[in-house]
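Figure 3 (text version): structure tokens given as input.
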């Protein structure tokens, strides 16, 4: 398969795997009203295949901030770590929600690196989460 073409059946499998949510910020496409993008966990530019095991959903902002990176540095220690892999890792193992539910908190080095690299607490998203909390759409129940 070429990197730009993903068959409809594969796109539907990935969408079902991801439960229609961004693998990084967990925002649902039903909340944003915009389609999710297919993210190459290992970017094509780094040799990643366009195959189910290397694809996951991401909102456009998370995908843009991740770019072609697979690793980044911890903003507190400078230590380098892989960015969270939503296909193989469990979100709750690396992240949690603040008491209010509007801020993503890193539980691990991978979590902290991903929060910084993908900007999971960007101001616009935090403000949106606050509104979603009021109407009961956030945080996700699982």
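Below: residues designed for each position.
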């Amino acid at each position: 398969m070429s990197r730009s073409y993903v068959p409809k059946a594969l796109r539907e499998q990935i969408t079902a795997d991801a439960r229609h949510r961004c693998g990084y910020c967990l925002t649902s496409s039903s909340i944003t009203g915009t389609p999710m993008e297919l993210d190459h966990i290992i970017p094509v530019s780094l040799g990643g295949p366009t195959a189910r095991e290397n694809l996951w959903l991401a909102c456009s902002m998370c995908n843009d901030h991740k770019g072609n990176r697979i690793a980044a540095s911890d903003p507190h220690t400078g230590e380098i770590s892989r960015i969270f892999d939503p296909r193989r890792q469990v979100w709750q193992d690396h992240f949690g929600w603040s008491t209010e539910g509007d801020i993503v908190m890193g539980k691990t080095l991978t979590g902290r690196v991903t929060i910084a690299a993908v900007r999971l607490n960007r101001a616009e998203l935090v403000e949106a989460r606050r509104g979603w909390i009021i109407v009961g759409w956030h945080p996700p129940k699982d």
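The chain is about 35% helix and 15% strand.
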